[in-house]
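The following block was generated as part of the benchmark described in Methods. Ligand: pyridoxal-5'-phosphate.
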Amino acid sequence: MKLFDVYPLNDIVIDSALGSYVWDDKGQQYLDMYGGHAVISIGHTNPHYVKRLEDQLHKVGFYSNSIKIPLQVQLAEKLGKVSGKEDYQLFLCSSGAEANENALKLASFYNGRKKVIAFKKAFHGRTSLAVAATDNPTIVAPVNQTDNIIFLPFNDEAALEEAFRNNDISSVIIEGIQGVGGINVAADSFLQKIRSLCDAYNAVFIADSVQCGYGRSGKFYAHDFSAVHADIYSMAKGMGNGFPVAGISIAPKIQPKHFMLGTTFGGNHLACAAALAVLEIIEQDDLMKNAEMIGNYLIEELKKLPLIKEVRGRGLMIGIELPEELKEVKKNLLFKHKIFTGEAKPNVIRLLPALNITKTEADIFLEAIKEELETPSAS
Ligand SMILES: Cc1ncc(COP(=O)(O)O)c(C=O)c1O
């Protein structure tokens, strides 16, 4: 059997990793400013994380959600504390799309309605309703198409008000910082407007924090900058530092009923051990502070560089928009400077490094991009 060829691949095989570095099978070192797609939150192969998973594996790796799993309770308590949402409830699953599916479904159970507001350039996942709420027709299969999703311009309060006036809205789903869409920050006032309209119409405010959450922005949820609480936060990527674990944090006003949500793998022993280790390191090493500090430093320094059209983002979720003629820069960073970065179409370099990246590592990246911008070259 061969692989189903859905990803264009770089010809690199990663063999080992530590902190913000990875090494290929030929021993070549790379600086990871991409965090394996925003997933590596506490750094690769963090010793505490490795030990916690190893210890758990020797005890029990998996048993079903039909029994009590105290690690889930510990995780809920810890997440409540670190995220500042101690009165919320946790439902665990295994991927970002699954988290958003459950969030949208729960909202509909809650108010009995069908219409969902999503935004231009949004990305919420590749399954069923999550992909329907994603603004990219090329990945929406005919079976996923639904007129239950209303796409509105991002950060447009008037359009939002009008949509609420004219429809029976179940929920609004929004990334605090759009990732795939090119690092676009939701305005604080816009998130406040979503909050007040959801309150007025008894709709559910879903904060997709799959990419921008878990401390990446310098706050636990990027939506926290607006100082309003969402009703449901979906999270995944950074939650397990690579172990597939995801979840939704649910406001107390939404009450559970048996079987309304469910999953086989979600919240298994190993997943909880991984997620707990991540939160322990985030707390112990004050990684949100580091994300804020190094993020601000990177943003300030990048803004001083020539040719860049715009630098956007918060904390360690940064978009560098380049003019079309500099579309080789990302490739050169990888193959010439041995630095992984992310991208967003058409020409945005996305930085999503581990939250414990150091200033020295940030400087290595800055030097490399500076060189590329000052003396652009072919790879
Ligand atoms: C904002 C956002 N939501 C949802 C998802 C889907 O997550 P997953 O790929 O784990 O299903 C992603 C993935 O990139 C994302 O960036």
